[in-house]
Structure formats: C-alpha cells, structure tokens
Amino acid sequence: MDDKRLFYLIHRVHGKLSHAVDQFLWDRLQITSAQLMALFYIRDHDGCLLKDLGEGIQLKSSGITGLVRRMEKNGLIRRTTCPHDGRGFRLYISPEGERIASGAMPMVAALNGIIREGFSVEEMDTVFRFLNTLLERLSGSLSFHPGQEGQDNGGRDPAV
C-alpha cells in the first residue's frame, strides 16, 4: 500500500530531489541548486537587494549571506553597496553567471521532464494545483484547531 503521510512524503521527496539535483548540477556546471535559483532570481531582478533575494528564494539572512559570498567569489555575481543605504547591497549577475544560467535552462527543462515522466497532463495539473495551494497556505502561519490533529492520516500515527 502506498504511504499516505503527506508531511513525511513531502519531506523525503524534498531531501532526495535536492540531493539528486545538486549532484546533477554540480557534475555539469559546478553549481548548487540554491546558487542556480539565486542566479535565476538575480537575472530576473538585476540590482536587487540582498534581502529581496532571500525573500525571493526563501532563504534566511544567515544562509543568503554565505550563498552570495560564494557566488561572488566564483565570479557568478557582483555585489555593490546600495547608494541609498550604505548597509545594503545590490546584486548583479556577471557574464559568467549569465552563461551558467542560460546553459542551465535546458537542464532544468530535462529535470522537469524526468519529474513529469509517467504522469498525464491532467495529473500534473492536479500536482501543480496542490503545490501552489500548499504554498499559498504556508505563506501565513499554520494554525491547528482542536480535533484537527490526525485527520486523513490513513489510520497512522499523525506524528510520523
């Protein structure tokens, strides 16, 4: 019987997918998925602030600082002090970063194809609707109501 523990499954898929994609990208471009997401964001928002990048790719400030430092060191982006706020930094994609981002597009399309393999258009539409709805719900804070624990868990322990 298929496992029906949503949180558990989403957690496992996230871990396995992140690891596989990082390995795939590293073998081909010597870049991580977090760096690629940051490159895509910076390319689409050239001159963005460091905090905007963090919000855009869902990374906390402690993680974003190290990520940007490594990307700058590897020549993927350049960082300049914000003229309006000396404490802030503006981020710009470098020619090397643009080359990597452009070269990654067919790879991302291939990865999406691998993920979609074996599913119909209708099934994928349901997956997209589910994931987008989940993202919307998680934009706020989770709230639980009495009696809600353990609903729809297939009779399993809700904590697992």
Structure characterization notes:
The protein is mainly α. The protein has a single domain (19-138), classed as Winged helix-like DNA-binding domain superfamily/Winged helix DNA-binding domain (Arc Repressor Mutant, subunit A, Orthogonal Bundle), CATH 1.10.10. Helices cover 60% and strands 8% of the residues. It has six helices and three strands, in the order H-H-E-H-H-E-E-H-H. The chain has helices at residues 6-29, 33-44, 50-56, 61-73, 95-116, 121-138, and strands at 48-49, 77-81, 89-93. A three-stranded antiparallel beta sheet has the order 1-3-2. Strand 2 and strand 3 form a beta hairpin. Helix 3 (50-56) crosses helix 4. The protein starts with 5 loop residues before the first helix and ends in a 22-residue tail after the last helix.
Task: Write the topology of this structure.
Blueprint: H1 6-29, H2 33-44, E1 48-49, H3 50-56, H4 61-73, E2 77-81, E3 89-93, H5 95-116, H6 121-138
Antiparallel strand pairs: 1-3, 2-3
Helix pairs in contact: 2-5, 3-4
